[in-house]
Design brief:
Length: 465
């Protein structure tokens, strides 16, 4: 079997090499490995990983459960007649616990889950539908649930389901202000709910579906904002069981007049208008092309071949946005297997740190891993703009990056991620398949043993995939 094709498969479908992964892929065969990754439920999750995730007790909570749990803590504090500063600390401690569990859960899965393509796609889609979980306010309460309930279940499913799940999650509704979006003149158009808010409608068109060149107009943005009036979050005092998902449609803030959106008449009738608009967007040719371009950019090249984008967009439209099948088209394409694209992508800080974790194989200090991400300019859940972190070389490759990563490589090789146990160089080379350029191999061979691991982790070869 061609080792180069094995390396390429691992580089693009996973976050990096682990001990034994190369022989595993060789034994399974590349095609069988790819198909198993496209069907993650067919891959058993180790019990050790399952147990680690279970210890993160805020990780699986719904928005409603998170809100109620925080409120219980605050009410108990009030009964004890604690001062407002102490109550604020209790609120903050709970939010910090959510953040810690979210970060650790993401890193553990990205590092240890055998369902690697699923983890790659969680990262891809969170960036595509980005919310800044570190922004403050209620976003600190809901961003983890956003990943677990709106993103993760749909990463290889239907795009329309993913789009709908993000559109109705309180993290998105709060982040892009649609919870304030109100029809002027409606019964509840008052105070901060006094008029249209176009923020979410604009980003829904520009970033989530059609793309900036997707053929929509300012009139379409306004029409979509009107369609989505009343899409918001439950009132804090609401106790209804249906509020568990954190979404509420408030008809008293909705614009019930007919609209024209993307050339289609949308009859004013309530929440169904929003669902119809999402249907139109999910099935639009511009969406098929935009999503296909971004996927091809992530898995093939920063400037993906137009021929590949067209093939993927065609499959997107034929399958009603079945992400798994669009990716299968990508992975079976001649463009994906063109040797010119091998080792042609530059690792983001996230991919770099996760690939180090997987290569060294004994990570116990996840706080150091996340601290490294912050210092490299890519804090988990902390992208401040709605377009998410970029995955292209021009966004991350600069002299400062290389200096920082080279410096980090020294600390990483000395064991900052695993109880200060120095990395075993020979095991590291075996894990990576001795897949180094002649120049890197020469530098490693001529160096003293105590810096070889640092040179490997800081090498140009390891920075690419």
């Amino acid at each position: 079997m061609n080792d180069t094709r094995v390396f390429h498969t691992i580089n693009r479908l996973t976050f990096g090499y682990t001990a034994g992964l190369i022989p595993q892929v060789k034994k399974m065969g590349i095609e069988a490995y790819i198909q198993s990754q496209l069907k993650p439920t067919s891959i058993a999750v180790p019990e050790t990983l399952t147990q680690k995730i279970k210890t993160l007790d805020t990780f699986t909570l719904t928005p409603g459960q998170l809100y109620k749990q925080q409120q219980r803590l605050i009410e108990e504090a009030k009964k004890l007649k604690l001062e407002s500063k102490q109550i604020q600390k209790i609120r903050g401690d709970f939010e910090r616990k959510i953040r810690q569990h979210a970060e650790e859960g993401r890193l553990i899965r990205a590092d240890q889950s055998p369902r690697q393509l699923e983890e790659v796609m969680v990262d891809f889609w969170y960036n595509h539908f980005n919310v800044n979980g570190l922004q403050g306010g209620q976003l600190k309460l809901y961003f983890s649930s956003y990943e677990q309930h709106a993103i993760r279940p749909h990463v290889l499913g239907k795009f329309r389901q993913l789009l709908g799940a993000t559109a109705k999650h309180p993290a998105m509704l709060i982040y892009l202000d649609n919870w304030l979006n109100t029809a002027p003149g409606s019964p509840k158009a008052k105070g901060r709910f006094k008029g249209l808010n176009e923020n979410y409608a604009r980003e829904l068109l520009e970033l989530h579906t059609l793309g900036v060149d997707g053929g929509y107009t300012q009139a379409d943005i306004i029409a979509l904002a009107r369609i989505l009036t009343g899409w918001g979050v439950p009132h804090p005092r609401a106790k209804r069981i249906e509020d568990e998902d954190g979404f509420d449609f408030e008809s008293d803030r909705h614009d019930f007049e007919d609209k024209v959106f993307l050339g289609q008449k949308i009859k004013g009738r309530g929440i169904e208008e929003g669902e119809e608009a999402l249907d139109l967007l999910a099935r639009h040719p511009s969406t098929a092309r935009y999503i296909s371009y971004k996927l091809a950019q992530a898995f093939v090249a920063d400037q993906p071949p137009e021929s590949l984008v067209k093939k993927m967009a065609k499959k997107f439209l034929e399958t009603d946005g079945e992400i798994r099948l669009v990716l299968n088209t990508l992975f079976t394409s001649s463009e994906f297997w063109n040797s010119d694209v091998y080792q042609g992508k530059f690792k983001t800080p996230y991919r770099y740190i996760i690939s180090v974790m997987r290569a060294i194989g004994e990570v116990s200090n996840f706080n150091s891993a996340n601290g490294s991400l912050r210092q490299l300019g890519m804090p988990l859940y902390g992208c401040s703009s709605p377009d998410g972190y970029k995955n292209t070389q021009d966004a991350w490759l600069n002299p400062d990056t290389m200096i920082r990563r080279s410096s980090f490589a020294v600390h990483l090789s000395k064991g900052i991620l695993h109880d200060k146990k120095p990395v075993d160089t020979q095991k590291l080379i075996e894990t990576l398949g001795d897949n180094f350029s002649a120049n890197t191999r020469e530098v490693i061979d001529q160096s003293s043993p105590d810096i070889k691991s640092a040179l490997i982790l800081g090498s140009p070869d390891f920075m690419k995939y």
